Amino acid sequence: MKEQLESIKQEALGRIVSADELKELQEIKVAYLGKKGSLTSVLRGMGKLSKEERPLIGELANQVREEITTALEEKGQKLEELALEKQLEEEAIDVTLPGRPVEVGGEHLLTKIVEEIEDLFIGMGYEVREGPEVETDYYNFEALNLPKGHPARDMQDTFYITNELLMRTHTSPVQARTMKEFDGDQSVKMICPGKVYRRDTDDATHSHQFTQIEGLYVGKDVRMSDLKGTLDQFAKKMFGKDREIRLRPSFFPFTEPSVEMDISCKVCNGQGCSVCKGTGWIEILGAGMVHPNVLEMAGYDPKEYTGFAFGMGPERIAMLKYGVNDIRQFYTNDKRFLEQYHNA
Question: Which residue ranges are tagged as binding site?
Answer without folding.
Answer: 256
